[in-house]
Structures are given as C-alpha cells and as structure tokens.
Write a structure and sequence with these properties.
The chain is α+β, with helices and mostly antiparallel strands. It is about 35% helix and about 25% strand. The protein has helices at about 10-25, 65-70, 70-75, 100-105, 115-130, 135, 145-150, 155-170, 180-190, 205-210, 250-255, 300-305, 325-340, 395-410; strands spanning about 5-10, 30, 45, 50, 60, 75-80, 80-85, 90-95, 195, 215-220, 225, 230-235, 240, 245, 265-275, 285-290, 295-300, 315-320, 350-360, 375-380, 380-385. The chain has a seven-stranded mixed β-sheet. Strands 10-2-1-14-21-20 form a six-stranded mixed β-sheet, with helices on both faces. Helix 1 runs parallel beside helix 10 (about 205-210) and helix 5 crosses helix 9 (about 180-190). The chain starts with a strand and ends with a helix.
Length: about 425
C-alpha cells in the first residue's frame, strides 16, 4: 500500500499528526518500534493493577486535548485540587480556595507557607490567567525558582510546596525549568482537573489510534535511517513516501536527523506497591515537604480511579526524581521513608514493579522556550514533531503533531 506520508513514532505527536493528515485526505503510515502506541504514555496490567509507566496525570484544561479527545469516553477520574504536604512529622492539606473554599478555610493557618504566601498564590493565579496561553509564553523568561522568588513567595513556601509539586511535574528538583512553563502549568491547574483515565493513561493514545484508518499503524517497525521521502527499517526494508515526519523523543530524533539541537532529558523512577488499604482516604497527591529522603511525591491511584486495581487491594505510586540509583538501596530507602510516614504497616506492602525512565521529559531550562514553538520543517520532505518542539506536556506533544501535519499539507497541497 502506498502512502503520502511516513510518520516515525506512534506517540501523541505522531498520532495527532496522522489524525490531522487523515482529516485532509492525506494517507499516512505510522511506524512504531515498540509493541504498542503511546510512546512515553503506556500502561501495563500487573496482577490486575494498571501501572502507568511513570506516574502522570491528564489535565482537562489542555486546549488541544479538548479539541481532539472524547473526554466522556476516557471516563476521567479527577484528583482533588490541592495536595497533602508531609512536613514536621505530619500531613498538612493545601487546597485550591476557588474550587474547595470550605477546605481552604481549614488550611489558612497550616505551616505550609504564611497567610501572605497564600494571598500571593491568588495574585500569581490571577496573572497566569490573563490573556492567552500564547501571551504567557511571551513573558520574560527566567527559571521557575527565580520566578517564585520574584513573586515574593517565602523560602518556606517554595521549599515545602513548590519544590516538590513543580519538581514532580517538571522532573526537575532544582526548578531550573523555564518560568514560561511555570506560568503555563499554573494556568492549566487553575482551569481544570488533574485526572486519570479509567483504563490508564494509555487510553489517551489508544483513542487517537482507534480513529485512524485500518492498517495505518505498523508496530515493531524500528526506523534506523531517515532521508527525504524515504526511511530504512532495522530489517533493511526501505519505505518511500512524499514526506517523512519524525515524531519521536528528542534524543532519538537527534540521532535519526543527525542533529545536535534537541534537548537532553529529565529522568524519573516510579515504584508501585500494593497495600491492603489506602492510607490517604481522599484522592490527593502527597508531597515531601521536608526535602529529606528519596520520595518526591506519592499517591494512591485506586482512590481516584478504582479501576486501577482489582478491587480488594489498593495501589500505591511512589515517584523518585532522577534515575541511576542502585535498585536494592533505593528500595530500602523508600521503604524506610514510607514507614516513617505511615508506620510499620508499610512492611506488608508488596512491591509490584519499578520503572526507571532516563528520558521522561525534555529539559526546558532557559532559553529552551525563548522560541515557544520551534520549527517543524527540517528540510525538503522531512518534518519533525514532539514535545521538544513545543513544551514538555501532553498539550505540547499534541500541538506539535498538528503543526507538523499543517506544514506537510502546506507543501503537498
């Protein structure tokens, strides 16, 4: 079968590119090296539990996702807006006063930041909601840490809340990520819910793939060489088309395109356990506000989405920033910290699986977003998309796929 466009990679950007092309009557073949669609958004079933490969959430406020996805079919299960912060041997709730005003009243005098800090959050939120998303990506660029300091937040507020919260989102404990990304994330969390699809995060790319024509995705097809109008597979097979779109993570794209401009990545390690019961009864993210120990954040996904487990037991997700840790030592340190937080009952928690992901997100330290949308046309007949072309989010990946398709269409039609 002949195709107009070959797309390398069945992650969100590649699938969105294929979708846009298909809507305009342009045929494409998506070539995916692995055994399934989704790229870095995959979900495994282990003993009846749904384990996302690295804990992540879907934000309902992403504009591109609203335009492309069927939220009702995804059956999204929201977390409560806010977090539990572990600090000084106790858990302290910090909540969104606009969506949970009664709970917010109880949080006013918590030790997580001062009353002035909480007022500054209101001002920071108001600023992030002004204008358009594009406006916020045109704000002066510095690091997220510097932006929080410039906004007047106390050291306590930054260290106990913002560092673990944003560090878990950016996978960047130093908060060197661009302040433009900070503004974007703050806006998205303010306007929507953080959710888990009932069938796991992989339900998002699966929905995109299901909308494509039959036989438009070829799994187990590893591309080793890209040239204008041509790709070569690891088997030696050569495929031809009018255009080629490289829709893989930054480091792989750099290798295929023989380019050095793509960013390095941020890594993360996610450990899953099964527990007899959830120790946090509400669907809230738990943050390490003390800054001690390997755990950055944890949650009980089955509290938010019961379908993440077989029913009789709870799922525990623990996130450690970075990779390369000795697995035995890391497990010991994580369990020690969990016992500190929840008591000796943790000794009965059973380990299900650990995911070590060296490249989970592209690094976005300034001046990474100096140009918020980087070019997707590389040369005649070759295009590129992925979150390294826009911003490190589901929104960024989906937008870049659409932009690549629009560039292809402009050249073909």
């Amino acid at each position: 079968m002949n195709h107009d466009v070959l797309i390398v990679g069945a992650g969100l950007s590649g699938l969105c590119c294929a979708r846009k092309l298909q809507q305009q009557g342009i045929s494409s073949l998506v070539l995916e090296a692995s055994d399934g669609v989704g790229g870095r958004i995959r979900t495994d079933i282990v003993e009846g539990f749904r384990l996302d490969r690295g804990f992540q959430v879907f934000l309902t406020s992403y504009p591109e996702a609203k335009a492309v996805l069927d939220y009702q079919a995804l059956d999204l299960k929201p977390f409560l807006p806010g977090a539990l912060v572990r600090c000084g041997g106790q858990f302290h709730e910090l909540t969104d006063p606009w969506r949970r005003p009664l709970s917010a009243i109880r949080c006013v005098f918590s030790p997580i930041g001062s009353i002035v800090d909480k007022l500054r959050i209101a001002r920071f939120r108001s600023r992030s909601l002004r204008g358009s998303i594009e406006d916020r990506f045109c704000d002066p660029e510095t690091t997220s840490f510097q932006a929080l300091q410039d906004a007047g937040f106390s050291s306590s507020m930054i260290e106990r809340f913002f560092r673990p919260f944003l560090g878990g989102i950016f996978l960047d404990p130093e908060l060197r990520t661009s302040s433009r990304m900070l503004n974007f994330v703050f806006r998205m969390f303010s306007l929507g819910d953080a959710c888990l699809p009932a069938e796991g995060m992989e339900a998002i790319p699966r929905q995109l793939a299901a909308a494509l024509p039959p036989n438009s995705i070829r799994l187990g097809a590893r591309v080793v060489r890209v040239a204008p109008g041509e790709v070569t597979l690891s088997t030696g097979e050569e495929l031809n088309a009018k255009s080629v779109v490289v829709a893989v993570e930054g480091q792989v794209a750099a290798h295929l395109l023989r380019d050095t401009i793509f960013s390095s990545g941020q890594g993360t390690t996610c450990l899953y356990f099964t527990a007899p019961r959830p120790h946090i009864a509400q669907p809230l993210l738990v943050l390490n506000g003390d800054g001690r120990g390997p755990i950055n954040n944890l949650c009980f996904p089955t509290v938010a989405a019961p379908s993440y487990g077989p029913g009789e037991k709870s799922l525990v997700s623990v996130t450690v920033l970075g990779t390369g840790n000795d697995p035995v030592r890391l497990m010991s340190e994580v369990r020690t910290q969990l016992v500190e937080w929840f008591g000796t009952v943790v000794q009965g928690w059973r380990h299900l699986r650990t995911y070590s992901i060296p490249y989970a997100l592209p690094t976005q330290s300034p001046p990474a977003l100096n140009v918020p949308e980087r070019p997707v046309r590389r040369q005649s007949g070759i295009y590129v998309c992925g979150d390294h072309r826009d911003n490190a989010s589901i929104q960024g990946a989906m937008v870049s796929g659409r932009r690549a398709a629009e560039a292809v269409l402009k050249d073909l039609l």
